[in-house]
Amino acid sequence: MLVGDVIGQVFSGLSLGSILLLAALGLAITYGLLGVINMAHGEMLMLGAYSAYLVQSLFQQLAPHWLALYPLVALPVAFFITAGIGMALERTVIRHLYGRPLETLLATWGISLMLIQGVRMIFGAQNLEVANPAWLSGGVQLLPNLVLPWNRIAVIAFVVIVLLLTWLLLNKTRLGLQVRAVTQNRAMAACCGVATGKVDMLAFGLGSGIAGLGGVALSQLGNVGPELGQGYIIDSFLVVVLGGVGQLAGSVVAALGLGMLNKILEPQIGAVLGKILILVLIILFIQKRPQGLFALKGRVSD
Question: Where can this protein be found (predicted)?
Answer without folding.
Answer: Cell inner membrane
